[in-house]
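Hello,

Our lab assistant flagged a job as stuck in the queue for most of the afternoon. It eventually completed. Since we weren't sure the result was trustworthy after the delay, we are filing this so someone can double-check. Below is the sequence as submitted and the structure that was eventually returned. Let us know if re-running is recommended.
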Amino acid sequence: MFFGLGKISKKSRLNKINKEFATQIGRIATQIAKGKRNEEETRRWCVDLLRSAMGYKDSEIETELSVLGQRVDIALKKGNHVFMVIECKAATMKLNNAAICQAANYAVALGADWAVVTNGHTWMLFHVAPVRGGEPDVVMIFDVSILDDDGLSKDDVGYLYLLTKDAVASGETMQSFHEVNCMMTDRLKAALSCDEAVSAVVRRLESDYRTSTGVAVTITHDQVRTLVVDLLEMLDEQ
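-- returned structure --
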């Protein structure tokens, strides 16, 4: 996907994100303090940030698009192609699975790779891919809050950069998806329980035990593989 990038550097873009989000934080905090359930305010705030911080032109921001019988809060476009949908919720609302599913379904219907869910202070980015005859494959890229204890952190700004026109066009956003997808739980389990990994663990356990106790022991690969799988399943349940 190519937009024709401007001359602003990545460092300048990161600084702009930091400045613009920091300036607007009070706007969202006020909504929360007043207990207002106003999705439209969040949508307007997001549009302002897409223009001022994220590098999008008005022609690339669509707020009147409908799909599946519903209005999409924000759709980002290159020409006539929608590549990202943004579902906006009121600042007082917690982002739940229903909101994520809603955004993902919009993305699939529009052929978009990306879905964002936000209430203004929490931002979640997902890669979405259709699955024939089933629910879409949805992978979370990040989940950041700019009103938590560390406020708008450097890491937060780095993640938010992935929403920019620059990052999408350069492939950085897609690369981040591949890095996350590479380390998904199923792949991690398979890697840690494969013969090569188990053999390395067996050698290390036998060596460390011999060094610390002076006693040589022999343990089997099956014993270690079972322990590794059990440990991974315990971590999954936490």
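-- support follow-up --
The delay was a queue issue, not a problem with the job. The result is valid. The CA atoms of residues 143 and 230 lie 28 Å apart. The two ends are 39 Å apart (CA to CA).
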